[in-house]
Amino acid sequence: MRRLILPLGLIVLLAAIGSSAGQPQKGESFEVASVKPNAATDVPEAVQLLPSGGLRMTGFRLLTLLRVAYASTTIQRNEQIVGGPAWIASDRFDIVAKANGELTPDAEGRRPQRLIEMLKTLLEDRFAVRAHMDTRKLPAFVLRVASRDGRFGPKLKVSTLECARPVAGTRADPDRWCGFRSSNGGGAVTARHVTMAEVAAYFAGYTIVGRPIVDKTELKDRYDFSVEFVNAFIENPNPNAPPIANPNADSGPSLFTALTEQLGLTLQSENTMVPVLVIDRVEHPTPD
What we know:
The protein is α+β, with helices and mostly antiparallel strands. It folds into two domains: 8-134 and 276-281, no CATH class; 136-273, no CATH class. It is 17% helix and 31% strand. The chain has helices at residues 8-14, 62-70, 113-126, 196-204, 255-263; strands at residues 32-38, 46-50, 54-61, 81-82, 92-98, 130-145, 156-158, 179-183, 188-194, 213-215, 223-228, 233-234, 244-245, 265-281. The strands form four sheets. It has a four-stranded antiparallel beta sheet with strand order 1-5-3-2. Strand 2 and strand 3 form a beta hairpin. Helix 2 (62-70) packs across helix 3 (113-126).
């Protein structure tokens, strides 16, 4: 389903933070952090937030970490990261860290902004990362409203949901989740309280799309939607292997058709200016 992008769980947890790249400026940092090589080559990248400000990230490539730390909605695919040695896309690392205080959700009740800032500091300190944002003309899809009068499709609406904000020691209301959830091999997607930039970043990772998506809808609210389509591919457990044909794919609309008919959005193929992250310097991490 999704190749060379953040796994779905990481998108729900970490995407859409909007951290700008540039000359490194010291921000918040973890109290303690351990970075160790992981010899595995085929395990999924996984992240877990722990009580009392703890974090565990397993099997991460630096390429993924860069996307999370610098610009996880604008840098949607690995081909938008320019420069750097080959090992940033292959070598794996485990990170265990602890922040001072809880990694609390942001104002939307979803993602801890402090975590992104601390991760960026860790990359700069331990991997000597120096990077800057630029733009390049690349094959991409442009996301627009399909109707000339701006009408939405039947399954897209402005969100009025108040996202749950978990409090330490309590359980969040499971009915007030925000973000993306998928089922049926990725061919049924439900989203709550998401921006169009998040929608673009989410669907850019589908194999059938295979390009960055630039949001030009000019829609500024947050939205709820559900969309169903035929997803011909499912994610391969081995991230270095090709995607797998979905044996359970039924007949029905393609993703492109479903976005238009059900949400009133369209993806148009263009060569257009796309954000890229240029790696100026990177080194293997310093020992613990």
